[in-house]
C-alpha cells in the first residue's frame, strides 16, 4: 500500500510481534497515520531514516501539528501552553487598563473620540483562549493492611487444553510488595496462568494456596467482550453493581467522567478507552 492508516495497532500484540511491527513500519517507504496511546512505540516509529515526521493533535475541537516525536510533543505542547497563559495575562492586564480609561473618561466630551476608539478596539480584539485542563478520572481504592507475607503459592501447576499442554511444573510464590511482569508469546498461557493465580480457573495438576481473607482485584481486556452494546452506560453499571452502590451510582460514574446525559449513551457508541 501507499498509505497505512493504523488505529491502535499494538493492542494485544506480544513482544515479538511488536518488534516485528516496529521494524516493518520503520522501513516502510509509503506514508502512514497511526493512532496510538503507546508513547514508546510512537517515539520509535516517528524517528525514521528521513528524520522525524510529526504529531497531529486533535484536542478541545482544535487541530495542531508538531514536527517532533511524542516525547518532544509533550515538551513543546507544555511550552506552548505556558506561553499562551503568559500572553493571556498580558492581554487581560491591557483590557483592564483600557476599560478603566473608558470608565474614567466616558463623561469627558474632549476625550469622546478616544473613548469610542478604545471601545471599538476592545470589540475587535481577538481574545486569547486558554484550554481548560481536562477533567481527570478520580478513583481511590481503600487501603487495607495486609497481614500475610505470602499471598499466593503455586506448587507443580500444569494446564492442559484439549490434550495440549499449555504449561507444566510451575512453582512460584507471590509475596507482599512483589511487582511482576508476565511476558510470553500470544497463546503461551499468560491469561490462563493469571486466572489460576486469581482462583478463577482450576489447573489440570498441582496445588494453589492463598492466604486467608485474600482479596484480589483483576482487570482483563476480555471484560469488553461481556459488555451489552445496546445497554446505556447507566444500565451496564447497574447490571454489575451491588445494591448498596446503586444509590450512589451516578456519582460513581461521574468519577469516570460520565456525567449529565453521558450516562445515557449506548455502549456501542463509546470509544475503546471509554468502554474500558
UniProtKB/TrEMBL annotation:
InterPro entries noted in UniProt: ABC_tran_Xtn (IPR032781), ABC_transporter-like_ATP-bd (IPR003439), ABCF (IPR050611), P-loop_NTPase (IPR027417)
Gene3D superfamilies per the UniProt record, alphabetical: P-loop containing nucleotide triphosphate hydrolases (3.40.50.300)
Pfam families per record: ABC_tran (PF00005), ABC_tran_Xtn (PF12848)
Domain ABC-transporter extension: 56-141
Residue span, ABC transporter domain: 168-275
Keywords assigned: ATP-binding, Nucleotide-binding, Repeat
Cited SUPFAM superfamilies: P-loop containing nucleoside triphosphate hydrolases (SSF52540)
An annotated Gene Ontology molecular function: ATP hydrolysis activity
Keyword Membrane: no
PANTHER family documented for this protein: ATP-BINDING CASSETTE SUB-FAMILY F MEMBER 1 (PTHR19211:SF14), ATP-BINDING TRANSPORT PROTEIN-RELATED (PTHR19211)
Protein's name according to its UniProt entry: ABC transporter domain-containing protein
The species this protein was found in: marine sediment metagenome
